[in-house]
Amino acid sequence: MTFPVTVLEPGLYIVATPIGNLRDLSPRAADILSRADVIAVEDSRVTAGLLRHIGTKRPMLPYHDHNAEGMRPALISRMGSEAVALVSDAGTPLISDPGYKLVRDARAAGHLVVTIPGPCAAIAALTLAGLPTDRFLFCGFLPSKEKARADAIAEVANIRATLVLYESGPRLAACLTALAQGLGDRDAAVTREITKRFEEAVTAPLSALAARYADAPPKGEIVIVVAPPGEAPPASLEDGDAALAEALTRLPAAKAAGEVAKKLGLDRKALYARALAMKDNG
């Protein structure tokens, strides 16, 4: 694979890399990596393998969770005269890693920022799971401690969207069990080894998936996809009584009935009759 020897405009180039299959690297991504003045990497050994695949060598600098604060000013400075490429070990940078601060500071310094899109494990898992994709929420990695994990799950329990999470093999069963306890036994998928030879997507209710992996934690990077909550049952007139009683402390009967009807989707005339009855009995 060969590329034209031309100089890239100085700035930051956000380059998505394969999540497993090296052939998923786009021609544009390969071109940018072959011409960048320096590549900011999570692990130079991983990126060196990718560069060997496209037949090039480029200078690399480490940029990860442990050194980002110290490295960022130097990278920003270099962007004034050099093309700096940013990669993660796999997938799209900034998704569950510290890259967004580099982008923020590069923009604040007035540097060019370009994205070269490509593979992303979260999006790939959504395509494999067979669950709704019209609305989804990426949750990254949940906390490892039980209480913090339960609190994080509670925060998203009522969001009407498919949930996408990253997890490791040893923690998978505990995470699935916590999700079943916090969300109910929703349909879900465990996807792993995406784009590799043994790509797998196992779909089942959360409790069944937790049992499956309890004694057999899988290897590889894992994405969990969880279906959104089911539709809540429609409210009844009885459900509206408490709301009516509260509204009547602030509003006349007609306006109270209108407010509750709009809030709960109930018949306004029926609510008005109940509101009058409440006032007569009050």
Structure report:
The chain has helices spanning 27-35, 44-53, 68-78, 99-108, 121-129, 146-156, 172-183, 206-214, 237-247, 253-264, 268-281, and strands spanning 11-15, 38-41, 60-62, 83-86, 113-116, 136-141, 162-167, 187-192, 200-205, 222-226. The chain has 282 residues and is α/β, with parallel strands linked by helices. Strands 3-2-4-1-5 form a five-stranded parallel sheet, sandwiched between helices. A five-stranded mixed sheet has the order 6-7-10-8-9, with helices on both faces. Helix 7 (172-183) packs antiparallel against helix 8 and helix 9 packs across helix 10 (253-264).
Strand content: 15-25%
The number of strands is 10
Q: Major β-sheet, in short?
A: 5 strands, parallel
Strand order of the largest sheet: 3-2-4-1-5
pLDDT below 50 for ≥5 consecutive residues: which ranges? none
- What pattern of helices and strands is seen along the backbone? EHEHEHEHEHEHEHEEHEHHH
How many distinct helices?
Answer: 11
Report the structural category. Answer: alpha/beta
Residue-averaged pLDDT:
92
Separation, N- and C-terminal Cα atoms: 84 Å
Main features:
282 residues, alpha/beta, five-stranded parallel sheet, 11 helices, 10 strands, 42% helix
Topology:
Elements: E1 11-15, H1 27-35, E2 38-41, H2 44-53, E3 60-62, H3 68-78, E4 83-86, H4 99-108, E5 113-116, H5 121-129, E6 136-141, H6 146-156, E7 162-167, H7 172-183, E8 187-192, E9 200-205, H8 206-214, E10 222-226, H9 237-247, H10 253-264, H11 268-281
Parallel strand pairs: 1-4, 1-5, 2-3, 2-4, 6-7
Antiparallel strand pairs: 7-10, 8-9, 8-10
